[in-house]
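Lab intake sheet, docking and co-folding queue.

SAMPLE TYPE: protein with bound small molecule
LIGAND NAME: flavin mononucleotide
LIGAND FORMAT: SMILES
REQUESTED OUTPUT: full 3D complex as structure tokens
PRIORITY: normal
SUBMITTED BY: R.K., bench team

The fields below were copied directly from the construct record.
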Amino acid sequence: MLGDNSTGKEFTITTFGESHGKIVGVVVDGCPAGLPLSEEDIQMELDRRIPANPKIVSARIEKDKAEILSGVFNGFTTGAPIAVTVENRQIDSSSYEAIKNLPRPGHADYPAHIRFGGFEDYRGGGRFSGRVTVALIMAGAIAKKLLSQFNVDVLAYTRAVGPVKADRKFSTEEIRKNRYASTTRCPDFGCSEDMEQAIVDAKAEGESIGGVIECIALNVPAGVGEPLFDSLDADLAKALFNVPAVKAVEFGVGFAISEMKGSESNDAYAMSNGNVVTQTDNMGGIQGGLSNGMPITMKIAIKPTPSISKMQKTVNLSTMEDASLTVNGRHDPCVVPKAVPAIEAAVAVTLADHMIRAGFIEKVLERKK
Ligand SMILES: Cc1cc2nc3c(=O)[nH]c(=O)nc-3n(C[C@H](O)[C@H](O)[C@H](O)COP(=O)(O)O)c2cc1C
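RESULT FIELD (auto-filled):
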């Protein structure tokens, strides 16, 4: 059985590393042999973590360099485990010593302290830091490369930051082209400027804000999923909830479906160029835990960053008395822009696993002559 830092059944990933440890990395096992893969493929996804505008991200801006340690030979995956790592370079643990007995409200500090008996690495949030999403993103880069061989594409983008919402529809091309060209990862550049301002304002007040990310998976064939207990929506939701700061996930119209009538909520089928399609997208492309061949659409709510410089109430775990806390150090006033590639990765890794499990991807992509 896989441990708790691993996920997947055929395309499995195991992540390791802490925010202020030596390295962060991932081992991907079960990636089919014969996939062209380079460090540049992984680097491209890693570079998407850091939005270009330093005003809206933490001062910890690391130029991460991905290194493939195994599982790739002559430019192709071999079918053996693929290990990829990045070094942690810009480490400054000083601000964490002062607050190590003062758990940050909203962060993992207190429950992690209880769960791991005080042995947890609290520096920089340790294993619970957003930094650890680097490992997920590297696994996601491999999953995306694999999925791209089958024309499957995963695109996430920012729909809302705090009170600022982008309320128009985006074309797939606009999302694909603009999302990483905008600092907030919103495909509408005008709206992105307003989002940026909201983040800058929050920071000036010692505050933080959250937002909404949308994600769409294109060209997933019908019939992917393993009901009843590894349904596609269940596994996607699980992967998404394992991204730090995710607090809600909806498929299709989500909670709004509870107020519709059956005749409104059912996605009617039609033929289009010989293919079965649905005319609406209320279900988000999944029924009975299986993909229906239409785009899979998800909305993900991201909470405001827990670490804020505004004074908050907490407790002192060494004296067991009430206390107060202001968090200094390097924190993102809004983690939404940095979370976008992590959301894409979570979805890609889950889809790669399920496409192999359902028999849409074989263990060797193409046999050598
Ligand atoms: C990309 C990313 C960056 C993050 N950066 C920070 C940060 O700078 N400061 C902080 O307090 N939380 C940050 N978080 C959120 C915490 O990691 C998260 O809230 C915490 O581990 C508790 O987990 P939960 O929110 O899932 O309950 C970040 C999350 C992500 C996805």
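REVIEWER NOTE: The mean pLDDT is 95.
SIGN-OFF: pending second check by T.M.
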